[in-house]
Specification:
This protein has about 150 residues and is α+β, with helices and mostly antiparallel strands. The protein contains five helices and eleven strands; from the N terminus they run E-E-E-E-E-H-E-E-E-E-E-H-H-E-H-H. It has one domain: OB fold (Dihydrolipoamide Acetyltransferase, E2P) (Beta Barrel). It has helices at about 40-45, 90-95, 100, 120, 130-140; strands spanning about 5, 10, 15-20, 25-30, 30-35, 45-50, 60, 65-70, 75-80, 85-90, 110-115. The strands form three sheets. The protein has a six-stranded antiparallel β-sheet. It has a three-stranded antiparallel β-sheet with strand order 6-8-9. Strands 1-2 form a two-stranded antiparallel ribbon. The radius of gyration is 14 Å and the shape is globular.
């Protein structure tokens, strides 16, 4: 399987998605890396500030890992899984606040956590194929075009 693209929006095939929250998840056992989808970064526009929760906290599914401020929007970046917040990517965002606009699936990851309810919450995450179908309909319904910030 290869990454799927619609209207410039990329859905990589190597992670899971909470389409309702616009968050991608990469699992390694009970460790999860989280980030905003290409669709989320396109809708929000260029990021201007991120305020992080401190690592060490236990966060419930749906609660914010950070508050994101962009050119068009201010709001929470929610975790799709319950767990202990192990790390946030504040160093990358300090160097380049638009890192998630340029590379949402790589250097622009937002948080890492150790899941504590993965067995119960795993069903909230979609595999790439079904996520792409849901995102494709959303992209069409909302006339979204994904563009990445250039240097």
């Amino acid at each position: 399987m290869t990454d799927q693209v619609w209207a410039g929006c990329v859905i990589p095939d190597d992670r899971l998605y909470d389409v309702e929250l616009n968050v991608w998840v990469q699992l390694d056992g009970d460790l999860a890396t989280l980030g905003m989808t290409d669709i989320a970064q396109a809708m929000g526009g260029r990021l201007v500030q991120v305020t992080w929760k401190r690592p060490g906290r236990t966060l419930q599914r749906g609660r914010p890992v950070a508050v994101i401020e962009s050119a068009k929007w201010v709001g929470p970046f929610p975790t799709p899984l319950t767990g202990e917040l192990l790390a946030v990517n504040d160093e990358a965002f300090t160097r380049d606040i638009a890192v998630a606009n340029r590379d949402p699936y790589g250097e622009g990851w937002l948080a890492r956590l150790r899941t504590t309810r993965l067995a119960e919450e795993r069903d909230n995450l979609l595999e790439p194929g079904p996520a792409f179908e849901r995102y494709r309909a959303f992209i069409e319904d909302n006339d979204i075009r994904c563009l990445r910030c250039a240097d």
